[in-house]
Write a structure and sequence with these properties.
By secondary structure, this protein is an alpha+beta fold. The chain is 23% helix and 33% strand.
């Protein structure tokens, strides 16, 4: 997937979040007692790659308003380039299209009660399939009450609020799904602004597509402008947290009371979650992925929410530090030797040591390249180690070039074939 400009950062944040929520939709009955899902309209039309469908297949689920309200026996169109395929939804509200040509441009379309529902355009997958929702408006809902003048009041973070954490390579993506609830019958203005700062170290803080336009981000500061309409205001914020070790500590304060703590963590390996404010947690497996689901009691406005993730994937910085230390030592020794023109024997010995070190690094580099060609070793470790060895060789050559104590053996003498 290719992204350009600013959206290169915004879209990758929103897709994993929606993917997590989409996976959890499979087990809604299991989660209903703990964590309720957001408005499905936020997920409508967004393709989600999956591995539980045949290669080159697309499954379109058609619902009205909520995930429990499937639309059955209804035609769904799949536009494949300039051609159109049609299938009817089954008892679970799904219409499936199989045998699609990899890379073909696709778009799902359905018309429900005169409302045209369209998905984003996306390429047909070469491996695995794609699932997506099309969500029609539920016209049975009561109309919104007429707007009235704002009054002074308070809001709370309702039961649909949650924290989603997704460990990755050297980082953790974090999402706040905030359900700001105004229980009054009129819009309210708060006595103090709804403003909070993301946790220390957060980078790339952004408002995720689908959030209320009242949400704004400036650096790591998030603000939601009033007045707040009666009912719910959805705010979704994403960021990345660098992980220098296998443990990450997160502290967050919100400007409104949190009615109930809910945390979802995508489990990678032996990832663990702990917090003094969590009262229960369990693992849930859905579509081949494991999630930690944790809940707790209310958290007062301004009270720090403290969480810790353990056993996170990361690469130790020790090898790089050792290599850089060796480079500094080698260069320092070369400079020291070059400043003693009268001590020829010492300079010759130092030159031989540098040549021996150079040849060893060449041998190590050859061995590293062999391991990579045979598919052994980790790609990230290969790149980091190769960079360290090349940097060390450059410094050694610099020291040898500045020394004229005598001829140098042929480059790579004694290297393994």
């Amino acid at each position: 997937m290719i992204f350009v400009g600013f959206r290169a950062f915004v879209i990758p944040l929103s897709i994993p979040f929606l993917g997590v929520l989409g996976v959890l939709c499979v087990s809604r009955a299991q989660l209903a007692a703990q964590i309720e899902m957001p408005d499905p309209k936020q997920m409508s039309g967004i393709p989600r790659p999956v591995t539980d469908l045949p290669d080159g297949s697309v499954s379109v689920r058609l619902i009205r308003g909520s995930l429990s309200n499937n639309i059955t026996n209804h035609p769904v169109e799949l536009h494949v380039g300039s051609k159109v395929q049609t299938a009817k939804t089954d008892d679970s509200g799904r219409a499936q299209f199989d045998g699609l040509t990899a890379g073909a441009s696709l778009k799902a379309v359905a018309v429900v009660d005169g409302e045209r529902l369209e998905s984003q355009e996306f390429p047909a997958p070469a491996r695995g399939g794609v699932r997506l929702l099309l969500v029609a408006t539920d016209n049975t809902k009561k109309p919104e009450p007429a707007a009235t003048a704002p009054v002074s009041g308070q809001v709370a973070l309702g039961g649909d609020s949650r924290v989603v954490l997704e460990p990755g390579e050297e980082t953790v993506r974090m999402y706040y799904i905030l359900d700001i609830v105004n229980s009054a019958r009129a819009p309210v203005n708060l006595a103090t602004p709804f403003v909070f700062d993301m946790p220390t170290g957060a980078v790339g803080t952004t408002v995720i597509e689908g959030s209320s336009p009242q949400a704004k981000v400036s650096g790591t500061r998030v603000s939601v402008q009033g007045p707040f309409a009666p009912g719910r205001t959805s705010v979704q914020i994403g960021c990345e947290l660098p992980v220098p070790a296998d443990t990450l500590h997160v502290t967050q304060q919100f400007p409104a009371p949190l009615e109930r703590l809910a945390v979802i963590v995508k489990k990678v390996g032996a990832t663990t979650l702990s917090s003094p404010q969590i009262t229960s947690q369990r693992d849930l497996t859905a579509e081949g992925q494991t999630f930690i689901l944790a809940t707790g009691g209310a958290v007062a406005a301004g009270q720090p929410l403290v969480m810790s993730l353990g056993e996170l994937p990361h690469h130790s910085s020790a090898p790089r530090g050792i290599a850089l230390s060796l480079v500094v030592a080698i260069v320092a020794a070369g400079v020291w030797a070059s400043r003693r023109p009268g001590d020829t024997a010492a300079r010759v010995a130092e030159r031989r040591r540098l040549i021996a070190r150079r040849d060893k690094l060449f041998n190590d580099l050859v061995r590293l390249e062999r391991e990579r060609r045979t598919g052994r070793g980790d790609e990230a470790r290969y790149r980091a180690r190769r960079e360290e060895m090349v940097a060390a060789l450059e410094h050694i050559y610099g020291a040898l070039d500045g020394d004229d104590t005598g001829p140098e053996p042929a480059t790579g003498a004694g290297l393994a074939a």
